[in-house]
Amino acid sequence: MSTEEKQVNTENVPKEEATAPTTEAQASTEEKKKIYKPTLTAEQQKMLKLRQLISRYRPRFIRMNSWRIKRLEDTWRSPRTSIDNQIRKQLKGFPPLVKIGYRGPKLVRGLHPSGFEEVVVYNVEDLQNVDPKRHAVRIARTVGRRKRAEIIKKAEEIGVRVLNG
């Protein structure tokens, strides 16, 4: 029964949608759009998964008294100078203190979750120093719309992944 249903479903699909592009221009654009995946060792892949697992259990570090005083933001500030600070003393019932043990694996530190090294790009010329197999591009926030479009177009030609494009 299931094989007959599959045959019926393929017959209902129009032939134009089922066929692959036949023109040379379309085939050449598909070759240009080849986007690389990062070349990672087995150990690096394992460490990326481990970093993702560790970060699930990493606590949210917040500033002392930010839950009490509205004008204080939640962003972390070290309590190292306070005499009686409960976070510095690591008392029960207070947010955790930042420690070296919460850090990720050294092998993949600084890598994007996809495994690429991030490179910030400000103009089209910056793309010349980028290796598509190792680097992914992040367009700087100060770049305008016109230059951003040029950077994205050039990155597609080279085969570089744009993280925020």
TrEMBL record:
PANTHER family assigned: 60S RIBOSOMAL PROTEIN L32 AND DNA-DIRECTED RNA POLYMERASE II, SUBUNIT N (PTHR23413), RIBOSOMAL PROTEIN L32 (PTHR23413:SF1)
Basic and acidic residues: bias regions: 1-18
Coiled-coil residues: none
Database matches in CDD domains: Ribosomal_L32_L32e
InterPro entries: Ribosomal_eL32 (IPR001515), Ribosomal_eL32_arc (IPR023654), Ribosomal_eL32_sf (IPR036351)
Species the sequence originates in: Thermofilum adornatum
NCBIfam families linked: PRK08562.1 (NF006332)
Similarity comment: Belongs to the eukaryotic ribosomal protein eL32 family.
UniProt GO molecular function: structural constituent of ribosome
Keyword flag Hydrolase: no
Compositional bias segments (type: Low complexity): 19-28
Keywords per UniProt: Ribonucleoprotein, Ribosomal protein
Chain's gene name: rpl32e
Protein name: Large ribosomal subunit protein eL32
GO biological process assignments: translation
Signal among keywords: no
Region annotation Disordered: where it falls in the sequence: 1-38
Domain of life of the source: Archaea
Gene Ontology CC annotations of this record: cytosolic large ribosomal subunit
Taxonomic lineage from the root: Archaea, Thermoproteota, Thermoprotei, Thermofilales, Thermofilaceae
